[in-house]
Design brief:
It is a single chain. With 132 residues, the protein is of the alpha+beta class. The strands form 2 sheets. The chain has a 3-stranded antiparallel β-sheet. Helix content is 42%, strand content 30%. The longest helix is centred in the N-terminal third of the chain and has 19 residues, at 12-30. The mean pLDDT is 94. The two termini are 12 Å apart. The protein has one domain: 4'-phosphopantetheinyl transferase domain (Ribosomal Protein L22, Chain A, Alpha-Beta Complex), CATH 3.90.470.20.
């Protein structure tokens, strides 16, 4: 059963500006070491950071919280399966809230183009978490 839905879109120019203005401080504050490694492997890491940013925002919308109630950017990590499909690894307060809501799995889709990145997340509750 669906336990929550979240979508976010971000202008890649906004992320590029944050990278140029704040550099490593922005990256280390908002992204996990694994996400940084993933983005740095690409010719233009900005698109990857923008996609991960949108995904994190979509996930906290699934939880109904935003980045409040003790949730940090590092509590929501976007990781890629061996197929390249993005998935979510929750920790800390984000994992606690997901458990309180009965959300056992989060489906995630990310897409980006030159100017925008968009992500949609769907929280799955209970027995349906093992499906599809």
């Amino acid at each position: 059963m669906i336990g929550g839905l979240g979508t976010d879109i971000v202008e890649t120019s906004r992320i590029r500006e944050m990278l140029e203005r704040h550099g490593a401080h922005f990256v280390e504050r908002c992204f996990t070491p694994g996400e940084i490694e993933y983005a740095s492997k690409h010719r233009d890491p900005t698109l990857r950071y923008a996609g991960r940013w949108a995904a994190k925002e979509a996930v906290v919308k699934v939880l109904g919280t935003g980045f409040v109630q003790g949730i940090t950017f590092h509590d929501v990590e976007v990781v890629s399966l061996h197929t390249g499909q993005p998935t979510v690894r929750l920790s800390g307060r984000a994992a606690e809230i997901a458990a309180e809501l009965g959300i056992e799995r989060i489906l995630l889709s990310i897409s980006h183009a030159r100017e925008y990145a968009v992500a949609t997340a769907i929280g799955i509750r209970g027995a349906a978490a093992g499906c599809g």
